[in-house]
Amino acid sequence: MEWVLFACSSANLSAGGFHRLEAICAAATERPHMLIRLEDMGRSLFEALDEMRRGGARAIRLQPIGLPFPESLLAWLPGVLADWSLRPVNAAIGVTLGPEPSRMDAGPTEMLRDLLAAPSTSVENVKPALGKPGWDTPPDFDFHLLVCTGPRCQMRDAASLSHVLKAECAEAGIAKRCLTTTTGCIFPCNKGPVVAVYPLGDWFHVPDRAAARRLVREVLCAGRGLPDLHIHTARLSQPSQHTTPHRSTIS
Ligand code: FES
Asked: Which ligand 1 atom lies nearest to the CA of residue 154?
């Protein structure tokens, strides 16, 4: 039996929204299935494929969902699936890629018809929401961590990295001094998962929780380098380009 791996591209999907989508997927098929998102948190594509193989899958269909599914991801997925299926441990497993949803006539049209037929809600008595207090100034922070959650870092198990970093910062007692932001692809995908730390201008390869902990403890708290994980320094932060001390720590 073919297993189905539903994949969406929704970095901003809440946990509740993701669970609702899981329920929709469950209602759509009786075959063994799983839902992943290709950015931000949760299982990576390879983790999900590996889990299906361990669960006994011998044929897997990757089915993109979401309207529209990003063209760049769609173009990239066949090669990524080929990468996984060419690994010797996956040799007995057939992998296919389903069609992009917006190119199917019936499904999306029916869904939109149902949506248009459902009652809508008036906003007549709703309080206007733009300009609320608290959204005027940036937080007071020392370090800005840019955590790549682009699809290639996600594939390299960047799943949940920003959450792991926030937890490590909290454990080290520096949560309030670090602003952690997720980004799309910032280019050195082959060295992913990537975290860029400013104002240091240093970029790091952060493959797992142990590396995240070292980044927090060594770089942010102690002001030391992390040569084995360091992959890049922004030009203005390079020693020949500045006159102020290169490293700072949280005091
Ligand atoms: S996807 Fe992270 S650097 Fe490209």
From this structure: 1
Q: Where in the chain is the domain with CATH 3.40.30.10?
A: 143-241
Q: Residue 147 Cα, ligand 1 centroid: separation in angstroms?
A: 9
- Considering the chain, what is the average pLDDT of its residues? 86
CATH of 143-241, one of 3.40.50.460, 3.40.30.10, 3.40.50.300, 3.10.20.90: 3.40.30.10
Report which of residues 74 and 213 the model is more confident about: 213
> For residue 42, which of 17, 62, 67 has the smallest C-alpha distance?
17
Evaluate if residue 99 carries a pLDDT over 60.
yes
Q: How far, in Å, is the centroid of ligand 1 from the Cα of 222?
A: 27
Instruction: Pick the residue whose CA is nearest to atom 3 on ligand 1.
Output: 189
The pTM of the full predicted model, rounded to 2 decimals, is 0.75
The highest-level CATH class for domain 3-114 is: alpha beta
CATH 3.40.50.1400 residue ranges for the chain: 3-114
